[in-house]
Amino acid sequence: MSFQYIPLPGDQEGSIRLVHLLPKNEHPKSCEGPGSSGALASPPARVHCTLSVAKLEEPPPYAALSYTWGTSDRKSTIMVNGMPFLATENLESALYHLTPQGQPLVLWVDAICIDQNSEGERPQQLRKMRQIYSRATSVTAWLGPPRDNSDIALGWIQYYGSLADSLGIGTKPDLMLPSLLQSLRVSPGKLPENSRLKTFLKEISNEVALDSGQAESIRVSLAKLFDRPYWNRVWAVQEMAHAKSVRFACGDKSVSVDALHHALRLMRNLRQFQKLRQGCYVQQATVKSIGFPTNTRNATSLLKVQRATEPLPLIYLLRTFRFFKASDPRDRLLALLGFASDADILGLSSDFRDKSYEELYCDVIVGLITNGFFDVLSLCDPDIRIPGYPSWTPDFTRLRARVPLQQRVLDRNSSPVKTSLRPTFSASGKRKLGSKSCPPPRSSGSHLVLHAKLIDVVDHMGTQWKAGHSRRWLEELRQFSFPDGANSLEPLPRACLQAVLHTAVADQEGWRAAIKPRLSDSMVAKVQEALERSKLSEDTASLTLFGVDDYMDQLQDIAKHRCPFRTSTGRIGIGPHQMKPGDRIYVLEGAPVPYAMREGTDRKLRLLGEVYLHGIMDGEALDNVKTLDKIKLY
């Protein structure tokens, strides 16, 4: 006989179940598996627990479990109230490793505390996720069972992350890790007089040594740890956002959220230092790579939410967690809407569970665009579009790799928390959306009514960027800069070369703390000098030897899935690789960047994506334009 739920009290809106995980010394001495007999007996259950009912308003102290369910076709038996209960293998492993030695551990675990077969109970309990996680004394994030030297990875994170925190690494200009490591190599006498700091730097510098087998083993174990499914789980975002405190557990080892935060910063800085030391661009880390892992983006994003003091705007959440996954495609947005600070303002506070995921996506995009968040269109891609749905509605169930031209950054000093776009572009000039002269877009069924200006038409397209083709990328932009009929072998005028260098990286440099600036004149001069000295060699990674590694990093980041192009008026730009001659470049009223659109055989305009078009990114194209046209975007 298997476990049977007793319904929650009539006021189940205010009631929850809690799991009491029994210590090992309270397990039955002998417990055969269900239906076992004689030689065919199943192994005894490793997990024993009981269930109780509590009032959510005044619950006893409990911890909440954050984990991935794992595949539903692979189950293990646990004992609940003395009866067998089928749990996923990952959950059984989590509960086994969390089993205490002394007093019972009180937990909230969704798969056990909610009757998953009750159509009435399940949605009611899920609506209380915010309260459940915020009222828990702590949250345990279960990464999975121990494997691939995960103990080594967690030990490294806890030790070096905690040490970096206590030493204040990265908190002051003189404590920036890359400069400290550089001083250790070339001028150790300039290091601060701090023996703990010097010991830390000597130890951590060994982790960068390319000939160290032990360091390579650590980097491999870290890369595999951050490849685990937990880091892609969208519901973990909401659970982290509401948690008072978090520990990340893997097997019998765990690390604090602060240690993980500082360890992630260390890995980012060690990647940068290692790249500078090698004098070349470090490619995406794999288990065979010598570099520190680069697959830490999702973990970093999770910790940003966990450490935030207030709820965050939906546009920031959507863009930050666009690579996270959910089994139900609606959850890609519902998990974020549940704690977005501006869901009500955007008109998105209703219960969307009766809608299809396609309808939900449309409603969310309309709410954002009509409130001026045009950058959600940067998530659209013609190759991953919901069939039969508008071109301005991205399909969040499929991953999109093209990096948006601008990034959303948090202003943590504002209340409520606000965001801004970096670097700053203003293709539509000083027009402020919502003013009398700049009405907001309107949605009408399958199309958006927008105020816009046709700026230019694509005339020539270059080659889609591929890894190692930076030379071709720069050369095609150079050729596009010559007037028709000019000999492309002639030296390019200095101003034209500067336009090429600005366009190649969408006129932006790498991050400077929380700032992502436009491309500076000093960097342009350095790149020009490097190009002259290197003669634009076939492998432009060698340019990093001339001190322009930041520029080359930015180029390789922004160029992916894009092509260079020239317009009919001779402007140069970069845009989605799906573009072709005849496509139109529009500036939308209130939008910071231009957009490429295509008119189909049905005479309808459809979105291709955002573009960088040199010479119009600061409102120049609309300076003397008093009225804009109405367009319909399908």
Automatic annotation (TrEMBL):
Region of interest (Disordered), residue spans: 416-445
Biased composition (Polar residues): 416-427
InterPro entries, sorted: HET (IPR010730), HetReg/Transcr_Mod (IPR052895)
One family name in Pfam for this protein: Het-6_barrel
Residue stretches making up the Heterokaryon incompatibility domain: 62-239
PANTHER family per record: ANKYRIN REPEAT DOMAIN-CONTAINING PROTEIN 39 HOMOLOG-RELATED, HETEROKARYON INCOMPATIBILITY DOMAIN-CONTAINING PROTEIN
Name of this chain's protein: Heterokaryon incompatibility domain-containing protein
Organism: Clonostachys byssicola
